[in-house]
Amino acid sequence: MNCWRDFKEGNWNKNIDVSDFIKKNYTPYIGGSEFLCGTTERTDRVLARVEELLVKENENGGVLSVDPDNVSSLLTFKPGYVIKEDDIIVGLQTDEPLKRAVNPFAGYRNAVQACKAYGYEIGENVKDEFKYRTTHNTGVFRVYTDTMKKARHVGVLTGLPDAYARGRIIGDYRRIALYGMDYLIEQRKLDKKRISERDMSAETIQLLEDVERQLEFMAQLVEMAAEYGCDISRPAENAREAVQWLYFGYLGAVKEQNGAANSIGRISAFIDIYIRRDIEEGTLDEKGAQELIDDLVLKMRLVRHLRTPEYNELFAGDPVWVTCSLAGMGEDGRPMVTKTCFRFLQTLYNLGPSAEPNITVLWSEGLPEEFKKFCAKVSIDTDSIQYENDDVMRKDFGDDYAIACCVSAMKTGKQMQFFGARCNLAKVLLMALNGGRDEVYGEQVAPSGKAFDEGTPLVYEEVLEAFKTYAAWMAKLYVNTMNVIHYMHDRYAYERLMMALHDVEPERLMAFGISGLSVLADSLSAIKYAKVTPVKDERGLIVDFKTEGDFPKYGNDDDRADEIAKWITEFFYSELCKTKTYRGAKHTLSILTITSNVVYGKKTGSTPDGRQAGEPFAPGANPMHGRDSEGALASLNSVAKICYDCCQDGISNTFSITPETLGTDEDDRVKKLVAVLDGYFAQSAHHLNVNVLNRQKLIDAMNDPTLYPSLTIRVSGYAVNFNKLTRDKQLEVISRTFHEKM
Amino acid sequence: MKGYFHSFESLATLDGEGIRYGVFMQGCPLRCVYCHNPDTWEKGGTEFSPEELVKKISRYKPYFGKDGGITFSGGEPLLQAEFIGETVPYLKDAEINYAIDTSGEVHLSDDVKYVLQNAQLVILDLKFWDDESYKKYTGMGISKVIDTLEFLVKIKKRTWVRTVVVPGINDSEDIIRNYIEVLKNKRCVEKYELLGFHTMGFLKYENMEIKNPMKDTKPLKKEHLKELQEFVDNELKKP
């Protein structure tokens, strides 16, 4: 059968160009959600089995089972199924659903500890093999300088991918479906031939070795698919095959790599083209189409990596970040919304709300109204969607980028990222005040400088100068640390399959990160506008501050504080750019902490903004909770001022609201949420997590206010920030707001 | 001149149409027994000039769309009608509409009339049903409220009327019928909405260390509110 029958031809027929294929062949959909279907009996059966397994996994302390003898890779496990006769899309990481394999390539000791944490001993064969094998982790520590180790130890650089895989790389899995592996392998061999003509510099040699490693895994992927009875050496012939081929690529990637984020990319318009063709040919109906997407999403929800408890503390909730980017606009002005975007959203009803896949809507002013409304409805019902500003990203990344992890954009198959965790800038301020010593451990981490005096109020200009000096030093150390990490990762834990699904010489981004932005901004504001006097302990370290008087706080749409936050990001980014990166990567920066804001807070002493030692930071670019006095939109406006141009790896913001606050009924809430999103993104803001909270969430917020900052409770004419209430009052609000349901 | 403000709420979604920016003004002539904002009674508060205020509000224009805008509430915003009147041209220049959330307990001065005339929507709190009940629970009579309502009828101003239903005071169909009588044939009234008494303002009484006359009253049950609202909706449909 002709796999490309009825497809419009274009550049994609001459070169590997999936984006061109999509644009020539996709059909925008501007209608509403009324065409969508519920689950089939088959889906119900598979879902019931998955739910049963998830309960068991949960009862078993979060890990269902581990195979400690078998290293995770493409061909190390026999095929696995949820229900063999019922699976439409096949393939699991191991031979059983939710069974985890060990993956020691990035860090052997980590793998051993992760096994131990769940009551397993790593297999003898694995021990033997890794006795003679250098892991990424070993490589990094061979080269780390004493200062790098110290910065890591005190937690000013945290979450570095030096003991697990770096993740954040998205293979262009669509290529497998469109072209088939034979063609991709053939093309990569031609690439190799072409590169071989060059002089053998270190760069060329490295690239040639990379390509050879890619070819090896491309062949393994074909074999892996064959074990499931599929011939992916040829292109996909229909929608089921297109989804299956694409998923095999993703599956191979998560078998090979245990990176923090394993995102699937931007696949909805691509799949939609195949579904449409099948429906027109009469071989598929809407029920069948939804069933296909439901089954793919179920598989994404089953992806697991074996982690250590320390890792889970940093990234709570066992995340994989199977980020799936939907919608956005084409550069030709047509929305890239298709019926399959709706079908992906529909999985949140058919299969229930879920954190995975991490459904990310690329929002644009130009998206069809009906789609916007459906997104808002799904957000309100499930809290499971995040939004990112396509109008801002499209300018830099075109219209075939995808989001990795939470907020990292990259051109699919054309850019890759060196993930760089984050630097705790609040700690850098304290280090500057203490003349380079760490405020918790007392160690001299940075070069020795003049410490500020006890009992004398801090002078803003002097503090700023000291901060700049230490932040510049920090930026240099940070880039160099990242260079070490990624050199070693390429060498010892290279992503053979994912990189095979990129152009042979992709652009590289090196993604740095900031944590503690709001704490630092408020601290500098306090020093500038109030009176802040340092307090020292017996070691002569500044460990506390006496802050007198009021000061403007980030999160109130007050330029005095917001400009400081904006300046911090611009300044730090410009400092990072001064140090050369490994493999000529482009420096990028994110303001994103995921759930690690709690851990960063734990490792940071008291700050001049009045935050006590150990208290959590606000997540991402969020203002500190309880400091906004003018409500949610003021807070959004403050965050919107942070400039995307210097934070191209994303500016994360979390927005939480109760349904009662958002509007009177569902229609009203939907309209208002759309207005909030339109208003926020019209100001060139980048990202928004939306929580329309139910009762359980309020209880969680009561126990940990950082989870849901700026949570407003409102009943006609009266508004209050939930986090500002005493516990008793919070309980009262909880019982009142959810009176009917109790 | 300067206006006096209690606080601002950038996401007020329930006081008018679309996304509202809530402007809570300081000062109120009433002392309602069930008041949940006793901290807005006395004069004082933060000062803003009309220009400063509109500059602040304009930052929220991207959210307003075609329905949204600002809502002057309080306190009693019409106590500062002269200030709002001076602000109106600035709002018009900025193409921002406004709603007025008022008790109606004001003298119908030229300023008040001007402010009401130019509002997109007026939200009128009909607190009680006759002079006696008004005096008993708010300290002021009903006549000014009726004058305000008549004025809104006369100028055909889109009006939403709201009443807080307090257990033990006005939570029966018989009493609510009295309110409906007041509103019958007032053709400017688009909507009559009952709000349930809640206790979330109690904290303010504690913080201000003033007597809370309702401290033993429980919040109105949601089901009861729903029943009363259905009753109201049916009654108002009758010719």
Give a structural overview:
The complex is a heterodimer of chains A (742) and B (239). Chain A is an alpha/beta fold. In chain A, 45% of the residues lie in helices and 12% in strands. Chain A contains 27 helices and 18 strands. In chain A, helix 18 (460-492) packs across helix 21 (559-576) and helix 20 (517-529) packs across helix 21 (559-576). The longest helix of chain A has 33 residues, at 460-492. With 239 residues, chain B is α/β, with parallel strands linked by helices. Chain B has a single domain (3-237), classed as Aldolase class I (TIM Barrel). Chain B has nine helices and eight strands. In chain B, helix 1 packs across helix 3 (81-93), helix 3 packs parallel to helix 4 and helix 7 (173-183) crosses helix 9 (222-237). Chain B starts with a strand and ends with a helix. The mean pLDDT of chain B is 94. The chains are: A alpha/beta (742), B alpha/beta (239). The interface between A and B is large, with 40 and 36 residues.
Low-confidence stretches of chain B: none
- Outline of chain A: globular
Helix fraction of chain A, binned, reads 40-55%
CATH homologous superfamily assignment of chain B: Aldolase class I
Number of strands of chain B: 8
Order of H and E elements of chain B: EEEHHEHEHEHHEHEHH
Which structural category do the helix and sheet elements of chain A fall into? alpha/beta
- Can you identify the CATH class of the largest domain in chain A? Alpha Beta
Report strand % of chain A: 5-15%
* Number of distinct helices of chain A: 27
Q: Measured on Cα atoms, how large is the radius of gyration of chain A?
A: 26 Å
User: In total, how many domains does the architecture of chain A comprise?
Assistant: 2
